[in-house]
Design a protein that fits this description.
The protein is built from ten helices and nine strands. The chain has about 300 residues and is α+β, with helices and mostly antiparallel strands. The strands form three sheets. It has a four-stranded antiparallel sheet with strand order 1-3-4-5, covered by helices on one side. β4 and β5 form a beta hairpin.
Length: about 300
């Protein structure tokens, strides 16, 4: 390549590695949020709902001691949405909790069954399963036996909170949005490049405009520590007259060096004037300065 051949910028390797790490981390967190929201939390909520159903059916069976046949006729819930709304109403909830907490109360067992029914329905609501087909129990006795075999020796699963699954979906949405932005940014930067003609010291920007050192009125380095430089263009330029061009020198390799080369040409460093102190330091000693001579100390 000859000296006058233009040079094309390339993506800066540290910036590329930094962007790839950010993209992987952000998309990884987003995928983690999706996995929790779509698989882990619903499975945990389903386990809790099954356990709560077991508790409810046990309490329903006990309610037969107060109201014979209650277990067989009332265990199934054909309208779970309306039933949960009724059970969570202030008056009904307070009455059931009060009676369920008093073993001497007349409706102790039925109220206990209704309290456990409310917990079961709430567990189903959190995983989107508050549906008649999920709460209609054809054979309550068999269902109770099946659940007892599954949960009698198993620990109580941890219940979900109302914000658990929505929060994971939110994490996924935010992370995927940021990841998409970073990918678009990376592709936009990757498709752009600067060109440099060392013979003219001409820097050509991705948009096609170009500058030579004489076009620069000022090189503003107020954000140089952040790899940002502002090129103030002189009046009279065909495309950028009077504008301040912002250049990110971190994303593209070589650009920083080209700008510094233009600066040295247009704004060469000024030599500091020699001061009297500097001149006296450089002056040779006089004959009568009292300095030692090769033959010995000067005479006093």
């Amino acid at each position: 390549m000859s000296e006058t051949a233009p040079t094309k910028s390339a993506l800066n390797r540290p910036w590329v590695l930094k962007m790839l790490i950010f993209i992987v981390v952000v998309l990884g967190f987003g995928s983690w949020g999706y996995y929790d929201a779509a698989i882990v939390y619903p499975a945990r909520g389903q386990n809790y709902a099954d356990w709560a159903e077991w508790q409810y059916l046990q309490a329903s069976a006990q309610a037969d001691q107060e109201d014979f046949g209650w277990f067989r006729t009332n265990a199934s819930v054909t309208d779970p949405v309306g039933e949960l709304e009724h059970l969570t109403s202030e008056e009904e909830s307070a009455r059931n909790l009060e009676a369920a907490g008093n073993p001497e109360a007349r409706s102790y067992r039925r109220s206990t069954a209704l309290v456990t029914r409310q917990r079961w329905l709430e567990g189903l609501r959190l995983i989107g399963q508050l549906k008649p087909e999920r709460t209609t129990i054809i054979d309550p006795k068999k269902r109770l036996e099946d659940l007892r075999a599954e949960w009698a020796s198993a620990p109580q699963p941890k219940p979900l909170h109302g914000f658990d699954i929505p929060m994971q979906w939110g994490i996924m949405a935010v992370c995927y949005t940021v990841g998409a932005y970073l990918i678009v940014l990376f592709l936009r930067v990757a498709t752009k490049s600067y060109r440099w003609d060392p013979a003219e010291q001409r820097l050509t920007f991705p948009g096609g405009a170009s500058l030579v050192p004489s076009d620069l009125a000022e090189i503003d380095k107020r954000k140089w520590d952040k790899f940002i430089v502002f090129l103030k263009v002189r009046e009279g330029h065909d495309k950028l007259a009077g504008q301040e061009v912002r250049v990110d020198t971190y994303r593209h390799a070589h650009v920083e060096g080209w700008i510094l080369e233009m600066e040295r040409t247009q704004f060469p460093p000024q030599e500091e004037p020699e001061t009297d102190a500097d001149a006296s330091d450089q002056a040779p000693p006089s004959a009568d300065s009292g300095a030692d001579t090769p033959d010995g100390p000067a005479a006093s």
